[in-house]
User: Fold this.
Amino acid sequence: MHKIKMINTMKILAVFMTAILAAGFAAPLVLAQEGSELEVSEVSADAEAETEIELPEAGGSPDSVFHGLDRAIERISLALTLNKVKKAEKALAHAEERLAEVKAMIEAKKLEAAEEAQKQHGELVEEAGDIANEIESDGDEESTGKALNDTLGLKLKMMSHSEKVAFIKNRILERQAGKLTEEQLAHLRAIFEKIGAKATEAEIRIEQKKDSIKIRYKVAAELSDEELEEFEAKIEERIKEKDEETRIKVRDKIRAKLSSDSSDSDEESEEDNSGSSGEANLSNE
Assistant:
């Protein structure tokens, strides 16, 4: 009982500290993040394609004085997440933010900052794999089925992350081909090779965990190989349908933002043209 009280007290203190930090540094963090936000309107021809990968906006850039604070808040948030599946998903979400930071820093030609974001990405992806490997069941059919569902969901998310890494790598190298020296391009390739290697390693570990739970579920539910494969296929289909719904919502939100930014730009242009016409008329008078 005393242990439980201590844990609860620690949680409350951690939440309190997070609130103070967030309140005290919210404005500077926003300012820091604005400078490194992904430029979604940078290349209008590619905007449609980039919405399909659902990459989040970059957080505070690695070369920002507030970057350490941002990461500390993330660590507290992860520590307070006790559910293993949600914790692994959160670590992966933070890793995707680091991937967005790598992209933003490369576009800003800050390769050292990009390398720092890459290292942090690797740590988070590795942590997601570690947490996934801690998922267990009680051995009965119900809990083992849930564990299979959870690990399969994490496996699909990790696969999606690996696809995003490959997409960003190809897009960045394509865009920077004529802008950087061969040495700088080699540096970029090395950064993305490390990102890809970490993602692949975590994907393999989660796949192995999922397979071990799958075998246990077969025994607990007394299924044949065919029935087991059918059961896994149904889980995967259900997860993909849910993820697709989320993906569409995110895509529509990004498209709405692009449309809004475009409208604002058109309005500003019209105002400028109107002002210029007025000045010209006065001049003629």
